[in-house]
Amino acid sequence: MSSDSSPPPDEKARREQEAAEKLIRGELTLGQFLGMPTQVLYQWANTAHQLLQAGSTQQALQIFKGLVAAAPYDSVFHCQLAATYMTLEKYDEAFEEFEQSLRFNSGNVDALVGRGEIHLRRGNVPAGLADFTQATQRDPELKRRSTQRARATLLVLKQQAQQSGAKK
C-alpha cells in the first residue's frame, strides 16, 4: 500500500479545472488560484515599498501591479500602486488606483490623502479638503505620515485663506 496521500490524477485534474473555472467567473482571485497566502503577498508588498523608498520605482511598480493582479480586492495594494504612480507623476493612473482602494476600504486614510492631493493638483480644492478632513478625522492622533501631510496642508490652506480674506 502506498503512503502517498495525494488524490488520484483524475481527481486532481477535476479540482484544478474547477478552480480554473472559479477564477474565470471571478469567484477566486489569482493569488488564491495560485495558492499564495495573504502573508506572502504582504511580504512582497513590504519589499516593493522598500524598493519605492529606495528610488527603484519601476521595480516597485511591477511588484505592485502583480499584487493588484493577484489580490484585486485588496485596498492596500491598490493604494501602494497609486503611490507608485504618484512618484512617477502619472496622476490619472494614481487617481484611479486611489479610487479603487477606497471602493474596497472607504476608511483607507492613505488613499484619502493621496486622492486629496490629486484633487488639489487638479484645482478641485473642495474635494481635496473633504478628503483631507475625512482622513484626519479617521486618524485624529496623526499616527500616519499621510494624515500628518493632510493636516499640514489643511493648516497652510487655512492660513492662505485667512491672509487672502484679510487683504480684501
Q: Would you kindly provide a brief summary of this structure?
A:
The chain is mainly α. The protein has helices at residues 9-25, 30-33, 38-53, 57-70, 75-87, 91-104, 109-121, 125-138, 145-167.
Structural topology:
Elements: H1 9-25, H2 30-33, H3 38-53, H4 57-70, H5 75-87, H6 91-104, H7 109-121, H8 125-138, H9 145-167
Helix pairs in contact: 3-4, 4-5, 5-6, 6-7, 7-8, 7-9, 8-9
Mind explaining what this structure looks like?
The chain is mainly alpha-helical. Helices cover 76% and strands 0% of the residues. α7 (109-121) packs parallel to α9. The protein is elongated.
List the defining traits of the structure above:
elongated; 168 residues; 9 helices; mainly alpha
Q: What number is the mean pLDDT? A: 87
Helical content stands at over 70%
Number of strands: 0
How far apart the termini lie comes to 93 Å
Give the overall shape, derived from the CA principal axes: elongated
Q: Biggest sheet: strands, sense, closure?
A: none
Integer-rounded radius of gyration:
21 Å
Structural class: mainly alpha
Q: Flag low-confidence runs.
A: none
Give the SSE string: HHHHHHHHH
Number of helices: 9
- Beta-strand portion reads under 5%
